[in-house]
Amino acid sequence: MKTAGSSSAENTFLGHLLELRRRLTWAVLALLAGFAVAYPFSREIYAFLAAPLVAVLPPDSHLIFTSLPEVFLTYVKLSFLAGFFFALPVVLYQFWAFVAPGLYQHERKLLFPTLFASVALFVAGAAFAYYLVFPAAFHFFVSFSGEEITALPAVREYLSLAITFLLAFGAAFQIPVVTVVLARLGVVKVDTLKRSRRYVLLGCFIVAAVVTPPDVLSQFMLAVPMYLLFELGLLFAGSVKAAPAEAESESLDTAAEASDGEGAVDPDRELDEAERQIAGLDAESRSSPDKSEK
C-alpha cells in the first residue's frame, strides 16, 4: 500500500520527467530549425572555416576528398554545428527554465551571469583559435611540403582538426568561469588555488599536449593562454565571497517546515503542555498531605 508521501514523491518525479521531456523537445526543435537554416549555406560555412588553410597552401595545392560521400557528410556536420550555434539561445533558455525552480536565490543569481560569461568566453576562445592559432599552426604544417612532398589535405581530416582546435580553445577559455564558480560556492579556496600555480601550469601543458597535434607551437599557443586565463580567474575569484551557509540552511529549514505540513510539531505548544502537566503534579502533591492529616 502506497503512503501519501511516496505518492507525492512519485508525482513530483513524473512531473520533473515530463518537464524535462518538454524542454528537450523545444531544444531539439530549435536545433533542427537551425540546421535547416544553415544547410543551404554549408558550402560558404566550409569555405570560411577552410580559409586559414587555403591561404597558406602552395599555389598548386588544394583540398581533396577520397570517398564519394565525404563532402556531403562534411556539409551535414557543419550544418549541425552551425545550427547548434544558431539555436544556442533557445537551448540555454530551456536549460535555465528547467533548473532555475530548484535553485536557491543566490544560486540563481550566480547561474545566469555564468551562462552568459561561458558563452562569451567560448566564442572568444574559438575566435582566438581561428584568427591567431590557425594561420600559425597551418603555416608550420604546410612548411614541410616541397618538390618531393605536395600538401593535399583531405576535407574530412581538416574538418576534424579544425573542430578539435575550436572546441579545445573554447573549452580552455572556460577556466576563469570555473575558477570563479568554485570560489563562489566555497568548493575551493582562492589561497589554495594560488598555492597550486605550479601544478596548474604543468596540467596546462599536459592538456595541451593531449588535445593539440604533436607540435610545440600548437601546444604553447594553447597552454600559455590557459595559464593566463587561470590567473585571470584568480583575479576575479579574489573579489568574490563564498556563498553564506546561513542563507542556504535557512532555506532548507523553510522548505522542511513547508513539506511537513500538518504533521509539523510546534515546540511552543509542547512547552506549554509540559508546564501545565508540571503545575498539575505540584497541585496534587500539595493536596495529598492535607488529606492524610484529616
TrEMBL record:
Annotated PANTHER family: SEC-INDEPENDENT PROTEIN TRANSLOCASE PROTEIN TATC, SEC-INDEPENDENT PROTEIN TRANSLOCASE PROTEIN TATC, CHLOROPLASTIC-RELATED
NCBIfam families in UniProt: tatC
KW Transport (keyword) present: yes
Organism: Thermithiobacillus plumbiphilus
Biased composition (Basic and acidic residues): 283-294
Similarity comment text for this entry: Belongs to the TatC family.
Protein name: Sec-independent protein translocase protein TatC
Record text on subunit structure and interactions: The Tat system comprises two distinct complexes: a TatABC complex, containing multiple copies of TatA, TatB and TatC subunits, and a separate TatA complex, containing only TatA subunits. Substrates initially bind to the TatABC complex, which probably triggers association of the separate TatA complex to form the active translocon.
